[in-house]
Amino acid sequence: MSLRYCKIALVATNAFFLLLVVFNNITDYGSNLLFVENVLNMSTTFEDNNAMWRAIENPFVHHLFYATIILWEVAALVVIAIGAVKLWEARSAAAPTFEKAKGWAAAGLTISMLQWYIAFVSVGGEWFLMWQSETWNGQDAAMRMFLMMGLSLIFLTQREST
């Protein structure tokens, strides 16, 4: 039973974390938009970079990218939060019922992992060559988020013994 509470707490903590991420992205919109702008502009990639044709300098597109990031975070937050509630409701149920309750949380954690992997590591890191920047490189942070969500997902999906 105590492992169930650990799983619920970990899922709820991921929801709380994303709540703070969304809050920060909305209340400090300009600072975080600056990050998106610099990544999309490829402003601090290596000099004489042959891939500069990929740079996007359109402010509308910057806002669109950033809004998409925020909405993706909100979607993951909501699904994970629903998952935490479902797990809490099933905390005393038989193992098959608790197993079934894991679906929302697993989906939400996966949605979040996909965001960090697709938007930050793949698109930002490789397409816009964020890895070349010492200033506007969010790959380490993205990897931390991906790993936190991934470890939570692995722990959550461990089968219940009773």
Number of helices: 5
Distance between the termini: 8 Å
Shape assignment = elongated
Rg is 18 Å
Question: Roughly how much helix do the residues carry, as a percent range?
Answer: over 70%
Mean pLDDT: 95
The assigned structural class equals mainly alpha
Poorly predicted runs of 5 or more residues: none
The quaternary structure here is single chain
Strand content: under 5%
SSE topology string: HHHHH
Largest sheet: none
Number of distinct beta strands? 0
Describe the structure.
By secondary structure, the chain is mostly helical. 75% of the residues lie in helices and 0% in strands. It has helices at residues 2-27, 29-41, 59-89, 95-127, 139-156. Helix 1 (2-27) packs antiparallel against helix 5 (139-156), helix 3 (59-89) packs antiparallel against helix 4 (95-127) and helix 4 (95-127) runs antiparallel to helix 5 (139-156). The radius of gyration is 18 Å and the shape is elongated. The N and C termini lie close together (8 Å).
